[in-house]
């Protein structure tokens, strides 16, 4: 019987789109492309998620790389980008309904601590009963050890959990540990709701 819903963040509770994030800043198309490549498309960005670099350390590298006229924009983006992510309101309405039914909601995401702390310290944090973040654990999905951290920390029975992620390799890793896996896009929210009904 399903008691716990474990959610990835990117493309599950919010739209992970560097282009849409950068559209919140006043940039020419050329500046947009330069900053997208040098920040979100950089080799350092996955290292932030992996906990090998902090955002502050990565920012210093980005500032050395971008043209001088884009250094202030780089600082602005690094300081504020989590505020400019588009969250999926229908997902949060669904989470609210699940919580009223007594289901527990957990976050398990490959993300740096800046975004993790933004979620935890904003109103979005009220929707979750606990989290595991890759940067904090220095482990990335689909490494099975990151799922085990969640199971151990919150004393969960894997058979009572569904893990929802936009990447199949990540849901398959959860299934290996005995969880249900649901590979998700926001247009499948109705199917996810139905899945939860059928397994609760």
TrEMBL record:
Protein name: Predicted hydrolase (HAD superfamily)
UniProt keyword annotation of Zinc present: no
Matches recorded under CDD domains: HAD_sEH-N_like
Keywords: Hydrolase
Keyword match Glycoprotein: no
Record organism: Lactobacillus pasteurii DSM 23907 = CRBIP 24.76
Gene Ontology MF terms in the entry: hydrolase activity
UniProt-listed SUPFAM superfamilies: HAD-like
Pfam families: Hydrolase
Highest taxon of source: Bacteria
């Amino acid at each position: 019987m399903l008691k716990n819903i474990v959610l990835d963040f990117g493309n599950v509770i919010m739209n992970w789109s560097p282009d849409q994030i950068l559209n919140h800043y006043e940039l020419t198309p050329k500046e947009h492309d330069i900053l997208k490549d040098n920040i979100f498309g950089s080799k350092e960005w996955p290292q932030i998620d992996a906990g090998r670099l902090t955002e502050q350390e990565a920012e210093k590298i980005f500032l050395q790389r971008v043209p001088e006229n884009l250094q202030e924009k780089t600082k602005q983006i690094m300081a504020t980008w989590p505020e400019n992510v588009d969250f999926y309101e229908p997902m949060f309405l669904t989470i609210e309904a699940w919580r009223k039914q007594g289901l527990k909601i957990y976050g398990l995401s490959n993300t740096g601590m800046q975004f993790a702390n933004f979620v935890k310290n904003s109103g979005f944090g009220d929707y979750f009963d606990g989290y595991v973040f890759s940067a904090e654990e220095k482990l990335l999905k689909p490494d099975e050890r990151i799922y085990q951290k969640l199971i151990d920390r919150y004393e969960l029975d894997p058979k009572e959990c569904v893990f929802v992620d936009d990447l199949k390799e990540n849901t398959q890793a959860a299934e290996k540990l005995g969880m249900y896996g649901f590979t998700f896009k926001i247009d499948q929210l109705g199917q996810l709701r139905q899945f939860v009904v059928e397994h609760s």
